[in-house]
Amino acid sequence: MEDAKTANVCEDRKQQFAEKMMGHLNSAGLSLMVSIGHRTGLWDAMGGLPPSRVGDIAAAAGLNERYVREALAAYVTGGIVEYETEGETYFLPPEHAAFLTRDAAPNNMAATTQFVAVLGAVEDRIVECFQKGGGVKYEEYARFHEVMAEESRQTVVLPLIDQLLPLVPGLKEKLEKGISVLDAGCGSGQALVRLARHFSNSRFTGYDLCVEAVERAQREVLKYGLRNLTFEVKDVAQLGSGQQFDLITTFDAVHDQAEPAAVLRNIFLALKDNGVYFMQEIAGSGHLHQDREHALAPFLYTISCLHCMTVSLARNGAGLGAMWGRDTASRMLGEAGFQNVEIRQLDHDIMNDYYIVRKA
User: Fold this and answer.
1) Are 108 and 154 in contact, with CB atoms under 8 Å apart?
2) CA triple 210-214-218, angle to 5 deg
3) Could you tell me the domains of the chain?
4) pTM for the whole thing?
5) Is 349 exposed, middle or buried (0-12, 13-18, 19+ CB in 10 A)?
């Protein structure tokens, strides 16, 4: 008698899914190897080399030849590096280097693959959360702030002056004359450091809950001798309305707050009547049937589950997740008091939405 579980199984569909799973396994392995290529400087070395033997590549990168050989095997079989059998030479095509080397920023996707290992390191804790609830705290993520700072450099810091600020008409001119700016949830503070160096007449403040991130930011202030920039360890949900700012920014920071509604309300209260709130968030729709069309949806939902959602839940928070989406964000901004919300996107950026928000 035919098993009830297999009675309606389509063999073609079964085979197709098996092939898809093999693709996932290959991609997962390659993601780790691409991350290692980034961290070791292997991609940067290969980006400037002609077709070369493994010893020459290892020497150029200053790495162990046996490990480089094994890594190259993964890259060749994964279609990243080209291999010429007769001469036993390896070559990183310039079209591939354009997404792998540090010089390729802001298009360096190798830097982003580092999140795979960072998030995988907390898998045991996430499994516990599936079973018992709760969340994983920020401080349990090794290297997270380091990797996030590198990602922020690409997505925020590099395009900040020439692409992001022009989304708000007249903002650059106001910064040049001198205004008061707050970055709420500033992380390692790279965006504010760049702004403070570029606009010496303006005054900048950064708040973040994580001591490690703020200490990293404070070192940058000392490094550049910036007198118009300060960082503090502060929960932005407890921001208060004592100090008024002309510009408040959040970069990929609201959705993982424990109390995002309180954060948005406090931003509203701390913003001057004629001020601007500039919010960057992941470009999700908030509706799963629409997010299926997003090219990076599986990756973004994975980051959400293994970091953004769980760090909020670890503090008994809302657990919005990275893909909370435009509709939810717009609704919550309205509930916080904002009546004027404009959502902008950049042609080359499929990852982010940019909210230009005013009180009236």
Assistant:
1) yes
2) 170
3) 11-112 (1.10.10.10), 119-358 (3.40.50.150)
4) 0.91
5) middle
Edge-to-edge strand list for the sheet holding 229-233: 229-233, 203-208, 180-184, 245-251, 271-282, 352-358, 340-344
Q: What is the CA 263 to chain-centroid distance, rounded?
A: 20
29/222 Cα distance (integer angstroms): 40
Name beta bridge partners: 181.
204, 247
What is the C-alpha separation between 92 and 57, in angstroms, rounded?
Answer: 11
The strand pairing partners of 26, in sequence order, are: none
What are the pLDDT digits (tens) for 183-196? 999 989 999 999 99
What is the tens place of the pLDDT at every residue in 234-277? Answer: 988 887 666 699 999 999 999 999 999 999 999 999 999 999 99
Q: Cα(242)–Cα(270) distance, rounded to whole angstroms?
A: 7
Residue corresponding to tokens 């022009």: 166
Cis peptide bond N-terminal to 106, omega within 30: yes
Residue identified by tokens 């004359």 is: 177
**CA separation (Å) from 66 to 71, 72, 184?**
9, 10, 46
Mark residue 170 as left, alpha or beta (left: phi above 0; alpha: psi -120 to 50; beta: remaining): left
Which residue has tokens 């790279």? Answer: 190
Phi and psi at residue 33, in whole multiples of 5°? -70, -35
Burial (CB count <10 Å: 0-12, 13-18, 19+), residue 37: buried
